[in-house]
Write a structure and sequence with these properties.
The structure holds 2 protein chains of 2 kinds.
Chain A (H helix, E strand, L loop, with lengths): L1 H23 L6 E5 L6 H17 L3 E5 L6 H7 L8 E6 H11 L8 E9 L3 E5 L7 H9 L4 E5 L2 H14 L3 E5 L3 H10 L4 E4 L4 H6 L2 E6 L26 E7 L4 H16 L4 H10 L7 H22 L2
Parallel strand pairs in A: 1-2, 1-3, 6-7, 6-8
Antiparallel strand pairs in A: 3-10, 4-10, 5-8, 5-9
Helix pairs in contact in A: 2-9, 2-10, 4-11, 6-11
Chain B lengths: L2 H13 L3 E5 L2 E4 H18 L5 H16 L6 H18 L1 H7 L8 H12 L3 H37 L2 H18 L4 H15 L16 H4 L4 H23 L20 H23 L5 H19 L11 H17 L1 H7 L5 H13 L18 H30 L8 H20 L2 H19 L5 H23 L6 H4 L1 H23 L3
Antiparallel strand pairs in B: 1-2
The chains are: A alpha/beta, B mainly alpha.
């Protein structure tokens, strides 16, 4: 009895310690939120809405800052030596810590950063404007085979490699145009500067209204809004663009700070009625939250696996 | 969603925005309050010799962002305030020019030529009223042209210009700006080249940070606030401090001649100056629509054209330079009509043409949700394009500022005369401190302050050798866009190295770019002889 009591007391004590750590950790000052996505795009809006929700819910103060370019590597390098006390965090894509960091070869690895939390997984589609007249991937392929030049918009080096492999697998020529973000791909496709492009969720509104059409899925699984569109694997590409919008911070962040921020982010993006939840649900179907150590393992695995895609694309 | 719906939503966005307070049960939106506050501040700043609209805009921006946040809701109040400052400063510049023979802003220099003689003749109040009517007319006309032209220009660009043409258009704009700003093409090109060099440090799509000399401090590039505020504001402050050192005139007591006679503005007066206002408004608007030329040249051209007409038509009346009301009208209508038209390239192409436009672009970049450029004017029918609503909201704030200008602008202009007594030796250090604070608030690291001071010294040196810092700033803002567009055009054309010359339109733009520089060189070589 005494032992059980002791254990119970210990458990309660431990639990209260854990929750108090969660509840009591507050940022020692305003949090600098670095955003690796172009201002005004879907991902940028998402990051700012998360910050707004956190301000409203927890009373933390955020100072957002755009650090775009090089697939999030600019942000990662800028953040690397900043204070790891939870006052500096950034939002990028999981591929920033994975493929992009591997390619950059800038002397850093995911272990130099602290993965905090994801908010949503990409709805990466190969999207064209309805006005273009293509209804399926085969229509695009037929146009390319008939001699039409196809401009393919991408927003990261990884996607550029995937687009290259896609063209190669399908035996067609694609002029791959790299821009700063999904918003720019969307604008380029709408304005006719590009014929087709990768979009990670920003297309949801246009697909729903009939202005855009998803020709293929860039993921390992079919898209939520176009379940019949072929996946990259169906089209002969062994790689995919699976990934998450990911918050991370400088390396060596105390677990207490990391877990408090991760729990706070998870809470706002999964709570009905919060602005970020509404936005994520609309664009990506549902929030998809992976936090802390699990996320760290996930990005480190992607970093290790990046070599294969790199090798395939450089052939 | 038709065009009418968008216009109506834009108007509603201003008037039904978040409520500031309610007056007799009617909610007054925060945007309206901010436009008014900006406008009044603008008049005061414009009326203060040594301060200018862009300085107030630069210092106000970080304060506004921290007050209103960075959500799309903040866009209209913040932009409304900045637009108010821009318009107020245009009107305010005439006040010390007329009353004390000291232009409050550089573009009001021509106003002193006729405004001050009127003051000496005891007609100061009338001169101020004339300046107000002319300025407000020119400004309103210019805004109407902006509202009518910007959407069409944007739609045209979006429909007919492909990536290579867009890259060529940016090169053309830069070439044009470098050759028309200031009085030397060579200096303009150097200023622009320095701007491009500065913006290309640490940026780019390659994973290796370029031009960083191996340091992590430079690998992130220069923050845009440090370069723009450093060169434009700190450079100006350093130069003014030096001028103050040499300038004994600042200590001379200001005298006010006794005022007498009929100070009212009669219908006959307005009829007399109307043709001058009309001509100058057209001249100012046309010049404003071209990026980089600016309000000082508009004022000079408006004045010169007015003077020619006046000497021919009414040789027996008071001539320009002797206290002619028409002279004030011609100048003020011309310099005021630049501000609206200057936003045509900003909103339809994302290309800033003057310092005020640079700060408007910086504001949109910090707030997000609104990216000036052809994408703004996409009239979607199925879904709502929020950027287009914001654009019409901005137009509404401009018309609102004009309404304030017509109704209460004149009264505040007359009050603003006291600002000439604001001591420069106290004002300038305050501006210096506020600017550095503004930069630190945005960047929050000491290296940003050092960068800014470095750019300030660069701005000072440029002014010392008679080089305009504006091409530097515009190149800094457009450099990234130019590189992106050129890279995309290169990729989109299947890696064609001649992508700037293969399509006729792009080739034409390139030829024009070279042509402008060559023509300006010739003009300047002939000029001094």
């Amino acid at each position: 009895m005494k032992r059980i009591l002791k254990a119970a007391v210990a458990a309660v004590g431990f639990a209260s310690l854990a929750t108090s750590a969660l509840a009591e950790w507050t940022p020692p000052g305003p949090i600098k939120l670095m955003i690796a996505f172009a201002a005004g795009g879907g991902a940028d809006t998402q990051a700012r809405l998360v910050a707004e929700d956190l301000e409203a819910k927890f009373g933390w103060k955020f100072i957002p800052e755009q650090v775009t370019g090089k697939g999030g590597m600019n942000m990662a390098m800028a953040m690397k030596d900043m204070p790891a006390d939870g006052t500096v965090i950034g939002m990028g894509a999981s591929e920033t810590l994975g493929y992009n960091m591997r390619v950059a070869n800038a002397g850093v690895a995911p272990s130099d950063f602290t993965a905090i939390a994801t908010t949503a997984s990409f709805q990466m589609g190969v999207v064209s404007a309805t006005a273009k007249g293509w209804k399926t991937w085969d229509d695009l392929k037929a146009a390319a085979e008939a001699g039409e030049t196809i401009r393919f918009g991408v927003m990261s080096p990884k996607l550029a490699d995937l687009a290259y492999l896609l063209g190669k697998a399908q035996g067609i020529d694609l002029n791959i145009v790299q821009v700063r973000g999904g918003k720019d791909v969307l604008n380029g496709v709408m304005a006719g500067d590009m014929d087709v492009g990768f979009m990670a969720g920003i297309q949801a509104k246009g697909v729903a209204s009939g202005d855009l059409v998803e020709l293929a899925s860039g993921l390992s699984k079919p898209l939520k809004h176009a379940p019949d569109a072929p996946t990259l694997a169906d089209l002969g590409v062994d790689f995919n663009a699976d990934g998450y919008f990911t918050f991370f911070g400088p390396g060596g962040m105390p677990a207490e700070a990391r877990d408090a921020i991760a729990a706070a982010i998870a809470e706002v993006v999964t709570t009905d009625g919060m602005k970020s939840n509404g936005m994520v649900t609309k664009a990506f179907g549902a929030p998809d939250v992976v936090t802390g150590a699990t996320l760290q393992t996930l990005v480190e695995a992607e970093y290790e696996a990046a070599g294969k895609l790199l090798e395939a694309a450089s052939e | 969603m038709g065009v009418g719906d968008y216009i109506w939503m834009g108007i509603l966005a201003v008037f039904q925005g978040p409520e500031a307070f309610s007056l007799f049960g009617i909610a007054v939106s925060i945007t309206i309050v901010m436009v008014l506050a900006g406008f009044l501040l603008g008049i005061m700043v414009g009326a203060t010799p040594g301060l200018a609209g862009p300085m107030a805009m630069a210092i106000a921006l970080p304060i506004l962002i921290s007050a209103f946040g960075f959500s799309p809701d903040a866009l209209l109040p913040v932009m409304g305030f900045l637009i108010g400052v821009m318009k107020g400063a245009t009107v305010g510049g005439a006040v010390p020019a007329i009353l004390f023979n000291t232009p409050g802003t550089p573009d009001a220099y021509m106003t002193t030529l006729d405004g001050h003689p009127m003051t000496r003749a005891g007609q100061a109040k009338k001169a101020l009223k004339l300046a107000h009517v002319s300025s407000a007319s020119g400004d309103t006309f210019s805004d109407i042209v902006l509202i009518l032209c910007a959407p069409f220009l944007a739609v045209l660009v979006e429909r007919y210009l492909d990536l290579p043409e867009k890259a060529a258009l940016l090169i053309l704009s830069l070439g044009f700006i470098a050759s028309v700003i200031g009085n030397s093409v060579g200096k303009g090109l150097i200023s622009m080249g320095l701007g491009l060099l500065a913006v290309y440090i640490g940026t780019g799509e390659d994973f290796y940070p370029r031009l960083s000399l191996g340091t992590q401090t430079l690998a992130q590039g220069f923050p845009v606030a440090t370069a723009v505020l450093g060169v434009l504001i700190l450079g100006e402050v350093f130069k003014s401090l030096e001028d103050l050192w040499y300038d004994a005139r600042a200590n001379k007591p200001v005298t006010e001649p006794a005022q007498s006679g009929d100070q009212r503005l009669h219908w006959a007066d307005i009829r007399r100056i109307a043709p001058y206002i009309a001509r100058s408004a057209v001249i100012g608007t046309a010049i404003g629509a071209l990026p980089g030329i600016g309000s000082t040249l508009a004022a000079t051209l408006g004045y010169a054209s007015g003077a020619r007409r006046h000497a021919k038509r009414r040789p027996d009346a008071v001539q320009f330079g002797k206290g002619a009301p028409e002279g004030i009208a011609a100048t003020e209508a011309a310099n005021s009509s630049v501000s609206g038209a200057n936003l045509i390239p900003v909103l339809s192409l994302g290309i800033p043409g003057n310092a005020a436009a640079v700060f408007l672009i910086l504001a949109t970049e910090s707030i997000g949700g609104f990216n000036p450029g052809p994408g703004v004017f996409r009239f979607t029918t199925e879904s709502v394009n929020p950027e287009l609503v914001a654009a019409f909201g901005l137009f509404t704030t401009m018309m609102l500022a004009n309404a304030f200008n017509w109704t209460i602008g004149g009264v505040f202009m007359r009050v603003a005369g006291v600002m000439v007594r604001a001591p420069k030796h106290i004002l300038l250090p305050i501006v210096l401190m506020l600017t550095l604070t503004a930069i630190y608030v945005q960047e929050a690291r000491m290296s940003a302050i050092w960068f800014a001071i470095g750019f300030g010294i660069l701005g000072y040196l440029m002014r010392r050798v008679g080089m305009s810092p504006l091409p530097f700033v515009i190149a800094f803002i457009l450099g990234g866009k130019l590189e992106d567009t050129a890279r995309q055009a290169f990729a989109a054309t299947g890696s064609d190295p001649w992508f700037l010359f293969t399509s006729p339109v792009a080739a034409l733009f390139m030829a024009l770019a070279v042509g402008f520089v060559a023509l300006s060189l010739r003009r300047h070589r002939k000029g001094p002889q």
